[in-house]
Amino acid sequence: MDRLFLDANVLFSAAYRADSGLLRLWDLPDTELVTSWYAVAEARRNLATSEQRERLEQLLERVRLIGTPAKPKNPSDLSISQIPTKDRPILLAAVAARCTHLLTGDRQHFGHLFGTSIAGVLILRPAEYLAAREPFHQQDPR
Q1: Burial code of 24-50, b = ≥16 C-beta within 10 A, e = fewer?
Q2: Are 40 and 65 in contact (CB under 8 A)?
Q3: What is the DSSP letter of 27?
Q4: Domain of 97, in residue numbers
Q5: pLDDT in tens, 46-56
Q6: How many structural domains are present in the chain?
Q7: Would you tell me which of 56, 93, 120, 132 could form a disulfide with 36, CB atoms 3.0–4.6 Å apart?
Q8: Is residue 125 part of a domain?
Q9: Three-state DSSP class for 36?
Q10: Is residue 112 part of a domain?
Q11: Counting beta carbons within 10 angstroms of the beta carbon of residue 62, is it exposed (0 to 12), middle (13 to 18) or buried (19 or more)?
Q12: Are 36 and 67 spatial neighbours (Cβ–Cβ below 8 Å)?
């Protein structure tokens, strides 16, 4: 079973529009969706309408929420210095939760890590993950 850590921008995008292609993540079999309170706070902060925030709350009912490790135990292959300070809690939470994947659309801060594994967590764009899981699906969930 895949355990998918959802970055704040994935949560934001899924809640932003009622017809977001990212909602397919919530329907995948053999997956567990995970995120952190840190990511949720960022997504909430950026959603503009009460309808969007309500959609986020409904989505979160089916997501396991975790805290950010207080004292991160950086695995030896975790090059934390490659990631901006504000995004480190995302990767550290994904590692701490033993997620198989970190799904993020953040090209600026995580783009150089797309397709690589850090401490057992494969970093991908949601579209790449969905394409691998749904090879015949033509929609791009951005």
Answers
A1: bbeeeeebbbbbbebbbebbbeebeee
A2: yes
A3: G
A4: 2-133
A5: 999 999 999 99
A6: 1
A7: 93
A8: yes
A9: strand
A10: yes
A11: exposed
A12: yes
Query: pTM of this prediction?
Result: 0.88
Give the CATH number, domain containing residue 100. Answer: 3.40.50.1010
User: Is-contact 84 51, C-beta < 8 A?
Assistant: no
Is 133 exposed, middle or buried, given 0-12, 13-18 or 19+ CB atoms closer than 10 A?
A: middle
Q: Which residue has the tokens 């292959």?
A: 77
User: Which class for 71: exposed (0-12), middle (13-18), buried (19 or more C-beta within 10 A)?
Assistant: exposed
Within-domain flag for 19: yes
d(CA 38, CA 96): 14
Give domain status of residue 119, yes or no.
yes
Span 13-24, pLDDT tens digits = 999 999 999 999
